[in-house]
Amino acid sequence: MEGYGPVPAHVARTLAAEGVWTWLRTDPGTGQLLDLGRRKYRPSQALADFITARDRTCRMPGCHRPARAADLDHIVPFAAGGSTAPGNLHALCTTHHLLKHHGRWTPRRQPDGTTRWRSPTAHRYVKSSG
What we know:
There is one protein chain. It is elongated and about 60 Å long. The chain has helices spanning 9-18, 45-55, 94-102; strands at residues 25-26, 33-35, 71-74, 89-92, 106-109, 115-118, 124-127. A hairpin with a 6-residue loop joins β1 and β2 (33-35). The mean pLDDT is 87. The relative contact order is 0.13. By secondary structure, it is an alpha+beta fold. It has a three-stranded antiparallel β-sheet, with no helix packed on it. It contains three helices and seven strands, in the order αββαββαβββ.
């Protein structure tokens, strides 16, 4: 057990039956944490800090509002099965957060960090990472 060491089998069984578990998904090649599970809607402070530092500004093309003053948004909605994980979270200022949810704008985050948006009129816009 991390931070403690080996535990006897009877203690492990009790922890397994009564404990609260958090699922951690890691990249098998690098060991990098990919997902903390989806049981919680709100990201941890560490995850929120990571998203804010990674995105730096609102992810809507042309918007330069700082991520530290933005909302953290699930790209795939949490209620639709989206996870609270780095690949499914991004920073959106309040205006663009509302536009996404009520204006039928659809974002897709690419593996390189680029955000591709589709407007309600099917126009496409891109905000590259960095």
